[in-house]
Amino acid sequence: MKQKLMTFAAVLCCSAMFVLSSCNAVDDIPVKNDDADQQADYTIIYYANGGGNIDEYLLPIIGDFYGASAEAYKWVNVVVQYKYSTAENMKKQSLFQDEFCDEWGGKTVRWAIDPQKELATQMGDPENIYGADNADCTCPDSLTNFINWAAKNYPAKNYMLIVSDHGGGYTPNDELPEQVSATRGLLYDDGYIVNDRPKHFTAKSLKRAIANANVRLQTVYMLACLMNNLEYQFELKDLCDYVIASTFAMPAEGCALGLLPEALSTYYDDIEWVLSTFCRINVETWEYERDPNTPFYTDLTVTRTANLDKLGEMMREFTDRLCNTYTNGTEQQKQLIDSCTKHAVKVEAMRPSYDVAKYMASIIYALPEVYDNDFAQKMEETFNSCLLAQNYSSYLTNHDYMVDYSVMLGVEGTYLYIKCADDGFTPIGFQAFHSDGTADDYDLSPNDDKTSYTATFNKNLAPWGSTLDDTYGQLEFDRIVGWSRWLKLNRQQPNIACPSAMEFTLPEPNN
Fold first, then answer.
1. Structure confidence at residue 138 (pLDDT)
2. Looking only at Cα atoms, what is the longest distance across the chain?
3. In whole angstroms, what is the distance from residue 446 CA to residue 453 CA?
4. What is the DSSP string of 124-141?
5. Domain architecture of the chain: domains with CATH
6. 322 near 489, Cβ under 8 Å?
7. pTM, two decimal places
């Protein structure tokens, strides 16, 4: 079995370079009782939607499950619920013929993977159509129902949920209360358009969907862009043992999901080895044959959720001291904090997401009279205890641009959504979302130094639908850490541009 797993991983990655035998913790593989009536070790619950434009990429990703062996499927179940994009949007994708789009657009299919069959056979079987046409897959009850169906019909000792589609990270205008029309967040249903935007899961509605299920999940994998943020991590921390997520955007092509049934069936008693190995191989698969010097922002992080409470306690203390110093400290201390905020490392060109570990480290380093060495060491140890695995593209590793988690930053309760030029990075304007629910639009022009910008007011926008207190203030992360206090207090606009050179320098310490 061990050799079979290594061979399978090599085939997946098209290279023998990805060898799995380096982990000493799995040298002794338990012997299983090959009893047909024995409960499966794992059921993988895959919940996905085409999101309007990525069906042609997600279907091959699902197809990767069919590469696993029949032996693996004796011990691991994989069940899938997939909603196709609308027929109109499917016709814009190169993979599909118009007749297929007309027949399957907007339909939902549900099935258990049979390794003896093919993806097209099972996915195209009318018997596997589930529910009415254009059923709302972003309704929390839909996901809860699927988890319960999977647990009832394919019971196992452990459950892994994979939610796959577009991801938008976290911003308050994406996190509107459920009674208010939502805009975006995780998993976009193009069949339900509200205020010109696809309906979606928010941090709160995803939490509710999972919390209402009849079984506890061991692992939640958000197979979507930009989801490795503390705002989502803290919502999920009490609902599972591990969270897999990407800080950056995820590549549209390539994946290693077929490795999961093989690894889980063999090393079923060492989930941490399985998850860390899977994520490493997955990132290596994404960047296979890419030039390591060409910008490629791709990563995966596995979080131990049991340790997030301790991280929350440490971040609460950090935020308490930060707010007190900014309010009551010396002018020099305020200037040092402002310098750290001004140079915060932005991890996504448009959204106000920043590298939280580097940001806090810069402030701790700049204010040793506020945060002594003991606090700094405890903070580092607490962060590391949450991180089971971190895997980055070679480009990010070579340029020392590894991000632990992202967090939202803003100024006096206002955060910015940056409008970029065609290159996807150069700021040309922004929308400002204020804590009271109002919003404005601005244009940006670079100054002579080419590193700063001048903002010119353009127009008032319609209110964004809620307030900072009714969105961010309702998050588990804010309840524990109180981060919104700093969002409201800070008077320095964070860096609005992603760095062109992947370098980060801590400010000079205040001696």
1. 82
2. 73
3. 4
4. T-GGGB-SSTT--TTSHH
5. 2-22+32-289 (3.40.50), 308-489 (no CATH)
6. no
7. 0.88
